[in-house]
Amino acid sequence: MKVLTPLVVMLVCAGCADIPELEGSEAQAVRNAPYPKLIPLQQALGTPADPEAEAAAVEEELTARSEALAKKAQDLQNASAN
Q1: pTM for the predicted model, two decimal places
Q2: In sequence order, which residues have a C-beta less than 8 Å from that of residue 17 and are 6 or more positions away?
Q3: Is the pLDDT of residue 31 over 70?
Q4: What is the 3-state secondary structure (H, E, C) of the chain?
Q5: pLDDT tens across 35-72, in order?
Q6: 50 vs 2: CA distance, rounded Å
Q7: Rounded to whole angstroms, what are the CA distances from 12 to 4, 5, 18, 19, 20?
Q8: What band does 81 get if pLDDT is binned at 50, 70 and 90?
Q9: Could you give the angle at the alpha carbon of 22 between the alpha carbons of 21 and 26, nearest 5°?
Q10: Rounded Cα distance, 27 and 37, in Å
């Protein structure tokens, strides 16, 4: 019963809301504009990506970064030993 009273009040308030009409709210230029030309989805998306080539590029980049970090770590260890 406690939940029902606020629900009824909200529904009554929603029924009293003044919702503006959407008809006529757009500009005259928009109303008279031609419908846009539709194109096939595949044409809009372009060529599909090659996941194997992308994976190879990412692997190559990560390997290079790993080697650079290992070299930097080795240089830091050699510098602190001297």
Answers
A1: 0.42
A2: none
A3: yes
A4: CCCHHHHHHHHHHHHCCCCCCCCCCCCHHHHCCCCCCCCCHHHHHCCCCCHHHHHHHHHHHHHHHHHHHHHHHHHHHHHHHC
A5: 989 988 888 888 888 999 999 999 999 999 999 999 99
A6: 60
A7: 12, 11, 13, 14, 18
A8: low
A9: 140
A10: 21
Place of tokens 């992308």: 54
- Give pLDDT, residue 1: 64
